[in-house]
Specification:
The chain is an all-alpha fold. The chain is built from eleven helices and no strands. The longest helix has 30 residues. The chain is elongated. The termini are far apart.
Amino acid sequence: MMRSVHSYLFLAVGFSPLLLMGPVLASTQAPAPTAAALASTPAKSAASARPSGNRNAKSQQPAPAQVSATPTAAQFAEWYRQFVEQKGLAAKGELCIRSRTCISDESDYFRHIEAAFNIQKGIEAYAAQGNHDASYYAGLIAFEEAKRFERHFQIYGNFKDDEYRRVGAQLLELSDRETRRAKSLLYPAAYASHPESCMLMGEVIEFERLGPPDVPALVFFYCAAREYYIRGNRNEAFRAYAGMLRNGHPQDPMIVEMHMRLYNKQPPNLWRPITKPQPPAQVSESPVTRPSASVRPTAAVTADGRARP
């Protein structure tokens, strides 16, 4: 009975051991690429990688593309987009494996999860060499994985059954492990004042569930707001400033400094010109006139009509 309940719950929430064990199983099939190997385009769409005719045929790797020795931020962004695409195709292949009407096998899942795993390990290899853009995207991948485990924990942790709570505790532990891994990947770039990494580090510390943070999230949001302001990106600076307000007292010196920088700046185009104040007009002094002797002051009158002495 318990096995049938678990099987139904897996189908209901879309949670599968394949998604948890995918990176581990993919690592046993193919070694992690080096930084030089990732210099070629890591993956393409599923149509170009799908074997034709033979199910047992090996997955076709896309032709390598020539790029520079040091990838740019745009290239890392493209690899991250391909990673997300491959993870989506892997989830789609998993659903096809479960369906009775979809003719497929495990290769529809493992082919894409292996491609996503290779992209992730390649980005982490560049991060280990000190590339700050690679550190940001590697930390972003780990942080998204931590949030996915957290969502599943919210589902399993609300049940009163001991088996469900045990699974929820395991999911919470996996989420904490991915959170700590994201922090370790982001630390070098964040301490080098990389604004995107500082911003993401603050969000990771806000998300952290187990244990107090080593460094408050306010510090990293301040780093992001300051660097964005220096680079002229005021919109992102305001977003980081909002994170500072969530994690610090309004009278904190860092919050006061960023408030002064963001709000006490004269706009370039004023709706009304500011004119220099004019000095007050000089008034010519006139001689004091005294009343003539013929004019006598009126005596004060009391309430009964008699004049006061």
